[in-house]
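USER: Please consider what follows.
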Amino acid sequence: MKLIRKSIFALASALMLTACSSDEPFVGDDPNGGSQEGEGVYMGLTIQMPGAGGSRSQTVEPGQSTDGNEVGKDYENNVDNVIIVLAQKTTNAFIVAAEVSNSKLSPIASENAYKTIAKIEKTRLNTYYGSDNFSPDVNVFVFCNPTNEIRNLLTSAPMDDIKWLQDITNVSSDMTTIANTANKGSFVMANFAIAQRTLPASINDWDLYKTENTAFNLSGMNNAGTDKQVDNSQTTANPNGGAVKVERLASRFDFMDGSPLAATNPDKAYTYNVVMQDGKTPLIQVQIGKMQLVNISKSLYSLRRVSNDGMPTGAVICGAETPKNYVVGPNAEVFANATASADGSGFNGFKFSTYFNNPFFNDNGKMDNNGFLAGATLTESFNGEDDNYDKGSYKIWRYAVENVIPATASRQQNGLSTGVVFKAKMIPTEALKAVNPKLYNALKGLKEDGNALTGTPDENPILYSLNGNLYLTWREVQKSAIEASVEMENNMPAPLKGKDGNVVMEGDAIVVKNVNRTNSLYLATFGQGAIGNFTWGKTKYIDKGTQDDKSANFSWEAWNANKTTIAAMRAAVTGAGFTIYQTSDDKDLGGIGYYCYYYYWNRHNDNGKPGIMGDMEFAVVRNNVYKLAVTNIKQLGHPRNPDNDPDKPKPDTPDESSDIYITVTCQVLPWVVRVNNIEF
């Protein structure tokens, strides 16, 4: 008899698998609440939306942030339809799925929850109850506002299939499949934890649940006090009972103006004092005008996974994030094996565009600051909707999906982590006008001859920066280096006074002696050699000795003579530590001017140890709100052209280093909030 029964059930399974090729979204399931062929039974479920709750960002048990929680916007909690999946308790093998439309969803406003009623064809349950793997104890999975990828995956999943849990859901660059911001609704959500539930003991017991009004309750008590009692309530014995808790697959980034100047002067929004005179008087400010998210993951798991090292082996489905484990990202195996190429241009066999939208590096390992910000506008950056966390201080900015780097912590690198690129314009103060009027005019948009800057960078003055000082043209660098290395008296080099035979006349030129060649600015400019010939005022001076042909000055003079050795000049000047700034045009930010860029790598868990990265310190995790504010900028940022940058990031550059330009506060909330204050 057992063999005969198993054959009947096998036949039933075959028939149902055939039915999967029809137009029905689910075999035996009714997304619209109507009737289908076959006898149906009903089950009910309560779905608990992501909660609300409140500085350093850290993960605490179970998967929460020390910065607290934030109530989501109505559209972030909206549910249009739901797919409910029953799976075997021990293996998560697929049993059955049912889709519930909006008409069968009843919001419970006081509890931030929904009640659902789903119809299941009894034949489908018959197959499960008749199998050798039957157990009344099952796992329940809920997918709110599922994407077509998730829906199609569950449509094609046969009974006993376990592959459905391993599949990755691809997301588009505009995030519309995961966070439907276009019409402000339909954020995809799934289980926060596995919901363990108990079904009726026998298939015949389902006869008690043949109407919507008598639906079997997967979130509460059924037939209390009878021999058919099944209790799915939240109890001490079953702490995961009751409502099924869900979380959003997306994470969110909010932004606030953290400038100390803006607090007292509205005209100084997003503006920071950077170059100071004697540490007191601001000479040059920068104003942030645009920002953009980079390295946005293209894929994610539909259900959260955690493991001891961030790798998929041994990962726990819907496991809680703790201070001692890792969230597993879908690219973990690829990221764990990414090795930097010998020339530092990228990762061997690794194309950034394969894994990221808006990658920080092109597939050839190059950076493009203008490319990062393509499409970024002032409105997108700063004029978002008020949040619900801090009285609207933060503006809702962007959504992204999970991006986590597996162990070890040193793998948290610029080529892999999600970050933010900020673009800022240099602004002169009136104090600069008195100190350096030519530099003041340049930053105001004027060349040395008084004409307006042009759209061709090579036609405009080039700025050079070293150790917090900014120089207008290389001649000013030379002059400053000489002043720093030759003892001065009445604006003349002291040795030129003629005392003690220090002056040697050669024709109409004066030979300079007693040069301090150990001065740091001298070394950066002239290297280990002599200055060469130079003009001071109307007098020509000669510094005898051999020039250093590897020095920044030697390469600059060679380029200045014929303009054909730009690459060699850039390499020598940046190799000496100078940053080169050339003009560019941004009509949104005032047109032609001098711009710089700041890079921030998103902090998920701050270990409080500057320069030392901790586990999952730099990451993006689902259902977290990352609240960013730039609170301090210490120096001018990176130039537009990476070839002009002595600190040009490489794909394997660590996310945290001792060279910090910017301070960002980051509060991270569930929405878990993580507040990141940014300092550059």
User: Anything to note?
Assistant: Confidence is low (pLDDT under 50) at residues 1-25, 27-37, 52-57, 497-501.
